[in-house]
C-alpha cells in the first residue's frame, strides 16, 4: 500500500483547530458581556434619559429593568414606536416589576 501525502490528516487537524478557536471566541464573547441595571439606583422610571450616557453597550449585554408594576410596565417597541411614544398593535408588554432583556431577545 502506498502512503498518502498526509493532506487528509492536515485538513482534519485544521478543522479541529478551527473548532477549538471558535469555541474559545464564543466563550470570550460571554465573558465580556455586561449586566446593566437600567436607571441604576433610580430604577426604571421617568427622568432616566441621561442614564445611558457614558455607557458602551454591545451585543450580548443584559439590561435589567426594575420598576414598580403598580405604575409602570415594559413594552417592546421598534424605533418608530419609541420615537412616537406609542405602543404598536400587538406589542409585548411585561408587568412583573423585574425584567431581564434576555427574556425578550
From TrEMBL:
InterPro entries hit by this protein: Cupredoxin, Phytocyanin-like, Phytocyanin_dom
Coiled coil segments of this chain: none
Keyword vocabulary terms for this entry: Signal
Span of domain Phytocyanin: 34-105
Signal peptide residues on this chain, from the entry's feature table: 1-33
GO molecular function (one): electron transfer activity
Protein name as annotated: Phytocyanin domain-containing protein
Amino acid at each position: 500500500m502506498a502512503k498518502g501525502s498526509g493532506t487528509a490528516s492536515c485538513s482534519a487537524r485544521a478543522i479541529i483547530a478551527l473548532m477549538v478557536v471558535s469555541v474559545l471566541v464564543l466563550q470570550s464573547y460571554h465573558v465580556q458581556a455586561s449586566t446593566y441595571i437600567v436607571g441604576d439606583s433610580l430604577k426604571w422610571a421617568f427622568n432616566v434619559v441621561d442614564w445611558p450616557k457614558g455607557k458602551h453597550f454591545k451585543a450580548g449585554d443584559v439590561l435589567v429593568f426594575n420598576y414598580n408594576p403598580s405604575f409602570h410596565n415594559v413594552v417592546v417597541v421598534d424605533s418608530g414606536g419609541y420615537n412616537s411614544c406609542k405602543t404598536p398593535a400587538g406589542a409585548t408588554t411585561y408587568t412583573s416589576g423585574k425584567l431581564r432583556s434576555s427574556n425578550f431577545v
